[in-house]
Amino acid sequence: MKLLQWLFSREMAVNSRGRTQFRPSLELLETRAVPAVTLISSTFNGTAIPADSSVWFSSVGKISGVGANPVTIRLTDATITSGNFTVAVPDSVITVSSAVTTATTEFNAQTNTWMTNIPLSGFSGNVFLAGATLPAPDGLPGGIKPVVWQADFTTDTPGVNINWKWAAAVYTNFGSDYNDLGVKPVDGSAANPYPNSHHAGTPENFTAYVFGGARGGGGSNFTGSLSATKSVTPSLVQPDLSSLSGFVYLDNNLNGSKDDNESGIGGVVITLDGTDDQGQTVFQSVTTDANGFYSFTNLRAGTYRLHEEQPPGFPDGLDSIGTQGGLVDSDLDLLYDIILGAGVDGQHNNFGEFIPD
Question: Which among 16, 20, 299, 348 is least surrounded, fewest beta carbons within 10 Å?
Fold first, then answer.
């Protein structure tokens, strides 16, 4: 939505009495999305948390309003707070897609983000949303309240709704690397790598060390009891789309670079294929214009290849990768391993030819 902000500029105006005064002005700010901020307050049980243990917090939810097309949901700026501690929760990206048959959860340490991929169907129950560990070297008292988990929710698809909740369990031994935990992505035994009855968010590789405390009672209560449920409709944020473009041209000096005086070749077919960030297969073809130019637009982030259909009558020359980066195989007229980020305009992906003798 459009946000308006009153800015009182310090323009000195002189009124009829000779006094200076401020003249307010109105400035229109850019369109921006405001995430849906939601929080759930709950309490810890009365069991004291022993020293040198860890509290594993996990949030889960049931996602509705998903159609046939892939959906991406993001949780950002999440925190868990109480009078005894504050925990910064890593961001999360949950992708629901028909390209996925088995749910997975991994942690990207470089971006500090949980990455969860969920099939459109084939399972029931909750989906893992996010998790965080609170080390307790000195222990913690029982009965801590309130404990508040807050997060910002956004999505790229209208109509999506999430009924979410959170839990917390104590572990006497726990991994410091989130990828070592073996976090279960969905409830139950179907469509996930852990065919058991455990809840989503269970740290499967450390279940032997669960202990009473936080919101759990030990035993087989690997996530702890769930809080109350809160319904949230994530704010709609359209993804930053990208593009790839370049030329097919006559490389007169055979230097593998398109110089200003070198003309393009029209009517050449260029094909793009790859997989986008939602796991969807992408396949498109375009034809160069009279100047030899081609462009693929409205691309999601992903990994792509560009292939030229060799124009008849022209001996093959050198090809060159564009500004976004990647690899080149001129013998195959192929630009590949193009890792395209969001909002990237990849230019100068060029295919060189030369005039036959």
Answer: 16
